[in-house]
Amino acid sequence: MKQAKFYLVEQAEKQGELSAVEALACDLAANAWRIGKRVLIACETEQQAFNLDEALWARDPEQFVPHNLSGEITQYATPIEISWRGKRNAQRRDILINLQQDVPDFVNSFNQAIDFVPSLENEKAQARERYKYYRQMGFEMITEKA
């Protein structure tokens, strides 16, 4: 069964250049890669994708995470791809980490989706709509505190 996991993020402050949600997305992608999963991080904007790319490159060498931005030419497909609206490679991925305001239309090509409930009220309302959409699409719903 397809599964959507929502993380409740209670802090809104930035961690360096990233929001708490973006920093958690990077950590979750790294953890998924370490257990052999291929991940797509779907960002809202190209700038957000660049920020995540920079944050992943800035990690300590022992925390290195092989990744690339959608559209970058690489000899081999990296396990983590960072995309944004209108830009995505066609490679098969195991997990979708959604940072977009809506659920991407390609969500059905994933068996597992990760999404977030931020602490700001207007963003919580958007998260509730995404939650309803995943449930309507037949995903098993899981909620966890970050």
Automatic annotation (TrEMBL):
GO biological process: DNA replication; positive regulation of DNA-templated DNA replication initiation
Domain of life: Bacteria
Record InterPro entries: DNA_pol3_chi (IPR007459), PolIII_chi_sf (IPR036768)
Any Pfam family the entry gives: DNA_pol3_chi
Molecular-function annotations in GO: DNA binding; DNA-directed DNA polymerase activity
Gene3D superfamilies, alphabetized: DNA polymerase III subunit chi (3.40.50.10110)
Protein's name according to its UniProt entry: DNA polymerase III subunit chi
Species of origin: Conservatibacter flavescens
